[in-house]
Specification:
Length: about 350
């Protein structure tokens, strides 16, 4: 997973896209399952990811086997017809390798693009997921056209795949886990956001609700639980912490600053620089203790085993939190060796 907090500068963003394509090609050649890119707007964290369909089209063309996924697409910012058409195009380019994690959006500034959709963004999202599935399946849907008439339309092009794999992104809300079960979507969340036992309980309840939910168009028989974890597999434990510790702390501090700038951000806007540093230090310790895949191969093995034990199906390894591209690639090769050992 990519979700970098990058500083803008002359050529910096062009170089970042070249790095993403390079890393994705390596991940593709090694046999990793998927590459995820998010949707973010007007922020330092995720600043090079305003449009998942555009970047995913480039990734589809640059790779051969790896799945190309949005993690996440802020559905209230987009017309569902536009989403269906964009991702059907990428599905054809990739020969059926797409997946989309739907998000409600959370930062008020994102909704400069659609301010009228901010307050009811959650309701809109949950209502439009079944519609998106029907559109993908080729069912006509009625909308008002430019002349004010109601017309039935079917999005084009038709997708390569019969089913669009859908995740629902959660930032921690219990309601999102319940909704994912009821709607029979997969779920995408951040491992470090939950104590181990709580995550196991969330996953267990999600499994039960998914099983109890009625059959739905485009839904799989079993949901996939994908957890995001910052990842760097080092040559040994000391090297991993030495290389990843400071970049991860800076990344987490950027995230704290982003949260504090949200107009619905929960009262953190008045934090001092020193308080933000303390929060970042606390978050770093928590990530290294649980919810990240950072350390020696043996440390990372234990982390992955722990996530599997609580019911996680996939780990979306967040790799671009401040390391240089050569370190990212070195860590990726070590992660691949570990991945193959765990699958044996």
């Amino acid at each position: 997973m990519f979700f970098g907090a990058d500083d803008a500068g002359d050529g910096a963003h062009a170089a970042k896209y070249a790095e993403i394509l390079r890393i994705a090609r390596v991940a593709d050649s090694l046999g990793f399952a998927a590459v995820w890119t998010p949707e973010r707007h007007f922020q330092q964290v995720g600043q090079v990811f305003p449009n998942p369909p555009v970047l995913s089209a480039a990734l589809a063309a640059a790779t051969e086997r790896i799945a190309v996924r949005a993690g996440s697409l802020v559905l209230p910012l987009h017309h569902p017809l536009r989403v269906a058409e964009d991702w059907a195009l990428i599905d054809n380019l990739s020969r059926g390798r797409v997946g989309v994690s739907i998000a409600t959006g959370w930062h008020s500034t994102d909704f400069v693009l659609a301010p009228e959709r901010y307050r009811d963004r959650r309701e809109r999202t949950l209502e439009e997921i079944p519609l998106l599935r029907r559109l993908w399946a080729g069912e006509p849907a009625e909308f008002a056209d430019g002349a004010g008439r109601t017309v039935a339309v079917v999005p084009q092009p038709r997708p390569y795949s019969e089913r669009l794999p859908l995740w629902l992104t959660t930032s921690g809300s219990t309601g999102t886990w319940h909704a994912a079960g009821r709607l029979r979507t997969n779920i995408l969340g951040a491992a470090a956001g939950y104590p181990r036992q709580e995550l196991a309980e969330r996953i267990g309840r999600y499994r039960q609700e998914y099983q109890d939910a009625p059959t739905q168009t485009g839904a799989a028989e079993r949901g996939t639980v994908t957890m995001i974890a910052h990842c760097y597999v080092g040559a040994d434990q000391d090297e991993a912490i030495a290389k990843a510790g400071d970049p991860l702390r800076r990344y987490l501090k950027s995230y704290v600053a982003q949260t504090s700038s949200n107009h619905d951000g929960g009262g953190t806007a008045e934090l001092t620089e020193r308080q933000r540093d303390r929060l970042a230090d606390f978050a770093l310790r928590r990530h290294l203790d649980w919810g990240s895949v950072i350390g020696s191969a043996e440390t990372c093995r234990r982390s992955l085993d722990g996530l599997r034990e609580v019911g996680c199906d996939e780990v979306a390894c967040l790799i671009d939190f401040g390391l240089g591209v050569e370190d990212i690639l070195a860590g990726l090769y070590r992660l691949d060796r570990l991945r193959k050992e765990l699958a044996a």
